[in-house]
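Honest question from a wet-lab person: if I give you the sequences of every part of a complex, can you actually get the arrangement of the whole thing, not just the pieces? Trying it with mine:
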Amino acid sequence: MTPLLSLGGLFAKLSLLAIGGVNSTLPAIAHEVVDERHWMTARQFAQLFAIAQSAPGPNMLVCVLIGARVAGVTGGIVAGLAMVLPAGILVMMVSGVWQRFQQARWRRIVQAAILPITAGLVLAAAAVLVKAADTSFLLGAVSAVVAVVNLRSRLHPLWLLAGGAAVGLVLR
Amino acid sequence: MTETRAPLSHRDLFSGFFHAGIIGFGGVLPFARRIIVDERKWLNQAEFNDLFSLCQFMPGANIVNFAFAFGARHRGVTGAAAALAGLLAAPIAIVLVLGRLYTRFGSLGPVQHTLGGLASAACGLVIATACKIAAPVMRGLAPVAVAAASFALVILVHLSLAVTMLIILPVSLALAWRA
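Yes, you can. This is the full assembly:
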């Protein structure tokens, strides 16, 4: 299979499985691009994810970075569109129904059902990233401090990313 | 929701989401909310919340889904395309340049050390996000069990995401139905 088809197929499938957002699919993306397709190492995956987090824009940008690494600019655009189009088309189709059933009980049930799944999957994403990125005690401490500061203060996440990068550069 | 107001032009849709995208460091949602609700008054807060809740509940990137749904309500499929193009054009161009730099210089020692620290910080942000999502969920045994099972099926049992969903979604719906 050509890289473009492979990228398009992978992210189009994950698009429809991204319950609660793109972060839910990070363990699946890591598994596919690192273990199954050998496009990059786990460490490189964690670094691409970090670069996407540091850029402005939605967090599906990690898919663009993966696509670009595999098949250049075209690969990046194909991967990005594959990640957004299936879900986006579905949302456009459902949006009218959603408005009509604003008070319906099933709406609250579905929302209540999805939230704990999202929580579990984003925790799984965190576990995958910690395993890939936190290869030393120092780096583990960076993750822990960033998590606590982000939960306890209103400091902009960009400062935390910059702080982590500075610690990596200076203390290594 | 928007019936009483005149539909926005393609140009408005593009520019509104373009602004949100290019300043949206660390998540576009707060910036999009400010532009759409506070500055341009395209939706009030309740309308914004209702449409955003749809985008959270549907699969896919939440804010990208929001651009699709909001654009489509105003100008149909081409409106969705305008909003999507506005939201993604600048961020995609920026990460493509960053990706190129990473391929070129990523293996240099100091760059590796910097990226190592950056990746750990990004991990920390995901941990915090997971805690924020989990906090309101962890009331009652059923949601905790569903969250733990989702985590375990992916990380410990190594099931694919599709199979995990097939197992956990019906269970979670049934539990939410009975609650």
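Two things worth pointing out. The CA atoms of residues 68 and 74 of chain A lie 7 Å apart. Chain A touches chain B through 107 residues (CB under 8 Å).
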